[in-house]
């Protein structure tokens, strides 16, 4: 059963869904965003709008 990040409310749900607590997850998202933009030279939304293919990642989260 897939769970949306919007549905995760408790520490237990964060750990069960991501293996991290919410604070650790948000730090990881920031690092991923920086690495993605450094690698591709543009943010994820711009890259998706300029691409003809389907992107694996719809957001940094």
Written overview of the protein:
With 61 residues, this protein is mostly helical. The chain has a domain at 9-49. 54% of the residues lie in helices and 0% in strands. It is flat. 0% of the residues are buried.
Short description:
The protein has 3 helices and no strands. The protein has helices spanning 11-18, 22-40, 44-49.
Layout: helices, strands, pairs:
Blueprint: H1 11-18, H2 22-40, H3 44-49
Average pLDDT number: 90
Structural class based on helices, strands and sheet pairing: mainly alpha
Strand content: under 5%
Please report the total strand number as a whole number. 0
Q: H/E element string?
A: HHH
Main beta sheet strand tally, sense and closure? none
Distance between the termini: 18 Å
- How many alpha or pi helices? 3
Shape: flat
CA-based gyration radius: 14 Å
Q: How helical, in percent, are the residues?
A: 40-55%
Name the poorly predicted regions: none
Keywords for this structure?
flat, mainly alpha
């Amino acid at each position: 059963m897939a769970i949306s990040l919007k549905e995760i409310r408790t520490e237990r749900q964060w750990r069960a869904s991501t293996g991290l607590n919410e604070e650790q997850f948000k730090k990881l998202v920031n690092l991923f965003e920086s690495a993605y933009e450094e690698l591709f030279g543009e943010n994820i939304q711009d890259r998706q709008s300029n691409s003809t293919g389907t992107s694996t990642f719809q957001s940094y989260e």
